[in-house]
Write a structure and sequence with these properties.
single chain, 178 residues, alpha/beta
């Protein structure tokens, strides 16, 4: 079975997310590291192959991986957009499903001719997924909300009055019936 390939236009995602853009203001390296960390936390254990493509300045393409996320720095003569289109076409030729995360209109338009069955996802959708609460935290939040709602209903009930409470063994019959 061919694994799903998710190609991410790295700088496009970083510059469209306020938190990642803030990290990038410190340095490009901080922005890239923040993106890789978020992607690894969200998608690291999924069966899909996640590859982030950045524009590079080297004479050749450099491929690495961090925390289960593939990273490609393009050659100086090639843009990240061209690399994404090439990778999408290669994966599609192998019969692999492809999703490209970018807001770049040029990539979206070119995907139709290079990789017609691939999907393009807007960066806003990727950002929502990256920053979404994980399942455990979501379940804890729902549980706490339900408990708070129950406690609020109990607050509306009549307060406990110990003088009106029954005393004695609850299993024993009352005096008149003994």
């Amino acid at each position: 079975m061919n694994t799903h390939l998710v190609l991410i236009d790295g700088y496009n995602v970083i510059r469209r997310s306020p938190q990642l853009a803030q990290a990038e203001r410190r340095s490009l390296e901080h922005g890239r590291a923040a993106l890789i960390t978020l992607l690894a936390a969200r998608y690291g254990r999924r069966p899909a192959e996640i590859v982030v493509v950045f524009d590079g300045a080297e004479g050749r393409e450099v491929r690495t991986a961090q925390m289960g996320i593939g990273i490609i720095f393009t050659a100086a003569t090639c843009t990240a957009d061209d690399c994404i289109l090439r990778l999408a076409a290669e994966a599609e030729a192998q019969g692999r499903p492809v999703t490209v995360a970018t807001d770049d209109a040029g990539i979206r338009a070119a995907l139709g001719s290079h990789a017609p069955t691939s999907q393009a996802r807007p960066v806003a959708a990727v950002n929502r997924e990256i920053y979404a609460a994980d399942r455990v935290r979501e379940r804890q939040y729902r549980h706490r909300s339900a408990i708070k709602q129950i406690m609020a209903q109990d607050a509306d009930a009549e307060p406990f009055d110990p003088r009106k409470a029954k005393r004695g063994n609850p299993r024993r019959a009352p005096k008149p019936k003994r």
